[in-house]
Amino acid sequence: MSEEPRVEMYTKENCSYCEKAKDLLDEKGVEYETYNVTGDEELFDEMVERADGRKTAPEVFVDDELVGGWDETSALERDGKLDEKLGLAVADGGETDVEHRKLIVSGSGIAGLTAAIYSARSNNDPLVLQGDEPGGQLTLTTDVENYPGFPDGISGPELINDMQEQAERFGAEVKTGIIEDVDDTSRPFRVELTNGDVYTTDALIAASGASARTLSIPGEDELMGYGVSTCATCDGAFFRDEEMIVIGGGDAAFEEATFLTKFAKKVYLVHRREEFRAEDYWQDRLQEKVDDGDIEIMKNTEVTEIRGSPEEGVDHVTLVSNPKGKPSQKLDDPETEESHFDVGAVFLAIGHTPNTGYLEDTAVELDEEGYIRTEGGKGGGQTKTDVPGIFGAGDVVDFHYQQAVTAAGMGCKAALDADDYLETAELGEASAVHEGAAASDD
Ligand SMILES: Cc1cc2nc3c(=O)[nH]c(=O)nc-3n(C[C@H](O)[C@H](O)[C@H](O)COP(=O)(O)OP(=O)(O)OC[C@H]3O[C@@H](n4cnc5c(N)ncnc54)[C@H](O)[C@@H]3O)c2cc1C
C-alpha cells in the first residue's frame, strides 16, 4: 500500500450511512472521491460489480480493494485498524497518550447531543463520543413528525445534524469513538475506547441508547426506513391503508400491532412459536382486534426475507411455518412450508438491547436487561447513577417511553446534574490517580 492510498466511496442520495462514512473519513482528514449512484444505472452497475454483487451504498474502496459499507468501515475503526488501512500514522505500541476532559458524553443521539448543548453552555467543554451509530437511532428514520417545533415534520438526520451544529456552536467537541471500558475505581475516571485511545474524565454522561434487535435476514438492512421499521409509533402513519406485518410475541409486539390498526388495512402478527410472552392485558386487547378482523395472528411462522426497493418500499416477504414452531431452524422438515406474502410494511418488535457493555465492570447499577438504573423521582439529581459523577440519559435508562423528545429531556437533566456535580464535587487532579477518592455529590 502506498503512503497515501486512493480512497473511493460510492454513495447515494438520502443515505444516512453514506453521510456517516463521509463524516468518519472527514474526521480522519483523508482525501477521497465520491461517486453518487442515484439515477445513474451505469455507475450503479459498476459499484455492484466492484462490490462483489452488493447492492447497498456506501461502498468504500482503498487502493482498489473493497473495504465495504458503513458496517465494515466502522468495524475497522472500532478495532483500531482503519488508520493503518488509510495510510495514517498508527501508534507505535508505546505508552498511549491520555487526554483529560472535564466531561465525556457517550453517544451522539438526541440525548447525548442535548446534554452536549447544555453542558457546552455551562462551560463544561463536553467531548461527545459517537459510538458505532453516529447520530443514534433517529438517523434511521426519514420523517420525524412528533418532535415539537416542526409542524411539517423533519427528517431524523437533519434534526440530528442541526443539533450537532448547535452543540458545536457552543463549544462541544464531537468525535468518532466507541467506549469499551470505564474504570470508576479512581478519580478522574479512566475511559478506554475500542481503538486504543484513552481519556480521563471528571464526569460521564452515559447516553448510549438501546439498539432495537433485528433479525439479520436478507432485505432488512437495505429496506430499513423504507418500509422496514423498529418503531410503529414513529413510522406507522406512513403506511396508511397498507397491509402490515408485526414480528414478535411480547408486549411490544402486541402493543404495536394494536396501535397499527389505526392505519393499516390489516395487521398480521407473525410469531415464531405457539405461545406468546405478552401480558394477559395485551393478549385481551389484541384478541378484540382479531375478533373485529383488524388483526390476524400467524403463529409458528417466521419471516426469512424481505423484498422490495428503497424507491418502491416493501413489496413482499418470504414466510416459513411449521406447526412445531421455530420454522427457520427446521427448513428440511417436510412439515415446513414456505410462502410469499404481499405486504407494505414490516415492523420488528423483538426487543431492544441497551448499550451498556462498557459499564458492566463499574459500580453503576444496571437492571436485569442491562438498562441503567438512575435515581429518578422528583427534584434535582434524577439522572444520577450509583457512581457519583456518572449520569444516565435517554433510551439507555428509559426502556418505557423511548421517544426522541423524552430522550432529549433526559439529556438536558443529565447535563444540569453533571454541572451541579462538577461545581461541587471534590475532583482529583487530572494527572493523578486517586484510589477510592469517592467524590461527594452534595
Ligand atoms: C426507525 C426509528 C424511527 C424512530 N422514529 C421516531 C420518531 O419519529 N419520533 C420519536 O420520538 N422517536 C422515534 N424513534 C425513537 C428515537 O429514535 C429514540 O427514542 C431516540 O433516538 C433515543 O435517543 P438516545 O440518544 O437515548 O439514544 P440513541 O438514539 O440510540 O443514540 C445512542 C448513541 O449512543 C452511541 N453509543 C452506543 N454505544 C456506545 C459506546 N459504547 N460508546 C460511545 N457511544 C455509544 C450510539 O452510537 C448513538 O450515537 C425512532 C426509532 C427508530 C429506530
Describe, in plain words, how this protein is organized in 3D.
It is a single chain. With 442 residues, the chain is of the alpha/beta class. It has three domains: 79 residues, Glutaredoxin; 195 residues, FAD/NAD(P)-binding domain, CATH 3.50.50; 129 residues, FAD/NAD(P)-binding domain. Helix content is 26%, strand content 25%. The strands form six sheets. Strands 5, 6, 7, 8, 10, 11 and 22 form a seven-stranded mixed sheet that branches. It has a five-stranded parallel sheet with strand order 13-20-14-15-16. Helix 5 links the parallel strand 5 and strand 6. The site of flavin-adenine dinucleotide has 41 residues, from helix 5, helix 8 and helix 11.
Summarize the structure.
The chain is of the alpha/beta class and 442 residues long. The chain has helices at 16-28, 41-50, 70-78, 82-85, 110-121, 156-169, 220-223, 232-235, 251-260, 280-291, 404-424; strands at residues 7-11, 33-36, 59-62, 65-68, 98-106, 126-129, 173-175, 179-183, 186-187, 189-193, 198-206, 210-212, 228-229, 243-247, 266-270, 295-298, 301-309, 313-321, 337-342, 345-348, 352-354, 390-392, 434-435. Residues 430-442 have low confidence and may be disordered.
Ordered list of secondary-structure elements with their pairings:
Layout (H helix, E strand, L loop, with lengths): L6 E5 L4 H13 L4 E4 L4 H10 L8 E4 L2 E4 L1 H9 L3 H4 L12 E9 L3 H12 L4 E4 L26 H14 L3 E3 L3 E5 L2 E2 L1 E5 L4 E9 L3 E3 L7 H4 L4 E2 L2 H4 L7 E5 L3 H10 L5 E5 L9 H12 L3 E4 L2 E9 L3 E9 L15 E6 L2 E4 L3 E3 L35 E3 L11 H21 L9 E2 L7
The structure holds flavin-adenine dinucleotide.
Flavin-adenine dinucleotide binds next to helix 5, helix 8 and helix 11.
